[in-house]
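Hey L., structure's done. Input below.
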Amino acid sequence: MARPSATLPLRWPAALSLVLPLLVATTREARAQDIEPRSYSNAPIGTNFFIGGYAFTRGALSTDPSIPLTNSRLQTSSVAIAYAHAFDFFGMSAKVDLIAPYNWLSGTATLAGQPISRDVSGLSDPRLRVSVNFIGAPALTAEQFASYRQDLIVGASLQVSMPMGQYDSTRVVNLGTNRWFVKPEIGISQAFGPLTLEGMAAVTLFTHNGNFYGGSTRAQAPLYAFQAHAIYSFGRGLWASADATYFAGGRTSINGEANDDTLRNWRVGATVAAPLSSRASLRFYASRGVYARTGNNFDLIGIALQYRWGGGN
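Output:
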């Protein structure tokens, strides 16, 4: 998090930045593709956040990029709600967040030389995440947070996806994935005045889907991801970020037979956040694929509203 302004009420809307990338994730259960600036920034303990947003994607399959579709003309729209809470974890700042998405998907593509089409709506898999900042972001009350200035923050998180979304084993394209995943991540954030540079590294581990397309068993190797962000604070809660992510691995197998679908994908994006009041802020974000080994790039644009309460104010 870049150096906050001296006005406490306007700092808070941008204090906890778990937000939009969670909502981005609702439109694409791609896990490693999430572009998430400021995910390890500090916030006063006891602060609660409610987030509602909308996102739109166009291009390849965003719900599962490891399915090797070509000639994709797919569109998804997503609305989501999320809740987050900042708390004290043995003197370190921590947060827990939960997101619940609802998606619409339609379009056509080619799979293994055969044309397919899909028009579906429903819930996507919800996610729960817990994160802790080990260095540089102590648990602070509202009064203590008023004088807090970021230097170096080091943190880690663990995210879990629950297989509760729409799923039909007779169709290859679904909104849910019918499997669990866990995603441990480590993040570093260094402030240089109004500029903050961030980096994250994560691995996503998948359970098997034992009812994949006609009753097959689908397995997936670990998916590795790296993110980088350059964030500039203009003061009073207004900031912008240039974002990039690279993810690799995730090769799948059906009934033990490996597919040639290892991912090596690049995405770039941008985020702009602005306060609406002392408790509410609005964020705009967009990203696009610049390279995909299996041709599964897509473009994304979204908007989200965040409201905070508690934390002593």
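The radius of gyration is 19 Å. The domain at 8-310 is CATH 2.40.128.130 (Lipocalin).

-- N.
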